[in-house]
Amino acid sequence: MNSSKASLYSENRGIQEAGYMNYLHKYLSVNANDKVLDFGCGTGELVYRLSKEANFAIGFDISKEMIGHARQKHVDTNVSYEIADISNCLETYPHWKGDFSKIVSVEALHWVKHKRQAFQNIYDCLREGGECFLLYSGPTNQFRGHDVDELPYYLKNHTKWKHHLERYKNRFYNELTLEENMQLLKLVGFDGVKGDLHTPCEEMEIFNVDELRRYVSSLVDQIEYVPEQYRSEILQDATEWCFKNFPVNNQGNKYFRRDAVVLRAKKN
Ligand SMILES: C[S@@+](CC[C@H](N)C(=O)[O-])C[C@H]1O[C@@H](n2cnc3c(N)ncnc32)[C@H](O)[C@@H]1O
User: Fold this and answer.
1) Is 40 in the pocket of ligand 1 (CB under 6 A)?
2) What is the distance in A from the centroid of ligand 1 to the CA of 63?
3) What is the pTM of this model?
């Protein structure tokens, strides 16, 4: 990812915002004594916001461009941003072990194949009595999922695009159900596991094709696998597919069908 993509992400993160805002404060309260860690903080909006309520907050992300953007745009004395991988962050920052009272992770864990290791790292970074709030894609996701009625399947089988996408591997790991996620959290040692399946985008209406195209260009990474001269064409095809296949809500507007698992757990 380059820095202009990080800015594009930051400008178009309505889907992320729609995902967590309804739940975050119902599931987790942050107060002035808390030290907060955000796993996969992206461009830093959430951890910056939480730093206003907390004693100190750290956001980390695997992408140096995302962290670069966060460091430039969301500055305060009690928030910092680091580059690290959810899968082995304690190898990079061993002093994070047992250091945080609250951990959040929003829309990041579906990029991580080995969920058990990620959950274990979250557990290990928490203090006793600490809590985490996790939200990421569940098994339905029309932009990124693997099912026959989801966009990646359409693009991968499209006569025009399939040979360009031979090298493309869909690294979106959203297969665990809510119950499987909850089981896994218990397995690594968490207590008080609570969960919900949330459909964040039903109320997030997409009013026109231009708006949809903006989402497609920020979310559909297959576009980068086709030669430059065909990129506007694949963007157009993907946008048209979405326009045709996305459902319509009660107000008659298109929305993006997806579910998100929302989890809260405590380390006793
Ligand atoms: C959809 S963004 C969400 C960012 C942010 N939490 C938000 O709500 O806007 C997903 C983020 O997860 C990061 N990510 C993906 N895999 C990661 C990993 N293994 N370790 C740390 N961050 C990762 C990506 O770089 C990206 O910034």
Assistant:
1) yes
2) 8
3) 0.90
